[in-house]
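#struct-help
A.M.: can someone run this one for me? Single chain, 210 residues.
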Amino acid sequence: MAAAAADSEDSETATAATVTTHHLTVPPGLTQAELQELAHSISEFHTYQVGPGQCSSILAQRIHAPLLTVWSVVRRFDMPQTYKHFIRSCHVGDGFEMRVGCLRYVNVISGLPAETSTERLDILDDERHVTGFSIIGGEHRLRNYRSVTTVHEYQNQGGEIWTVVLESYVVDVPEGNTEGDARLFADTVVKLNLQKLASVTEGLARDQVM
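D.P.: on it. Structure tokens below:
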């Protein structure tokens, strides 16, 4: 009886979960043509099972810098403060190796509803330029937060090169908040981080030209 009840509960949970369709909606900052080119990558890397009490979103940032310049910053799981606005400091353990499963310990700037965050590297693919992490501990409001970032290069017929960065996430909606409130908060943080990533890497690209 107990096993049957558990199976029924699992079935109801699975039924209640929905699959995101980020590949069907053009994120702000992207063109429809770019979305069509990225649809397969979005389906592969930016699709989530979203359960009750969770929300998900995807954001895009166009950066006037080569892919390898952008990726050199994004891939540094041990140095998120390079482009993430709200991190006061980040440290890793002795003998740290940047590989799937490694951890970073983040201290957040004052003024936010957070103090610390323990984060685990879930994916790091240097060939396909994909990385992602989960928040697994700390004092913050982003419970069960998982994020994936992919980096894509474009070149037009005139030879101009630019990069598009996609970052998506799924996260629990905090108690007392609406889904809209939770998405607005997370979207704002991600958007500001991506804007700073653009500023940092475009500056690096200019320095490389000089």
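A.M.: thanks! The longest helix spans residues 179-209.
D.P.: also worth noting: Confidence is low (pLDDT under 50) at residues 1-14.
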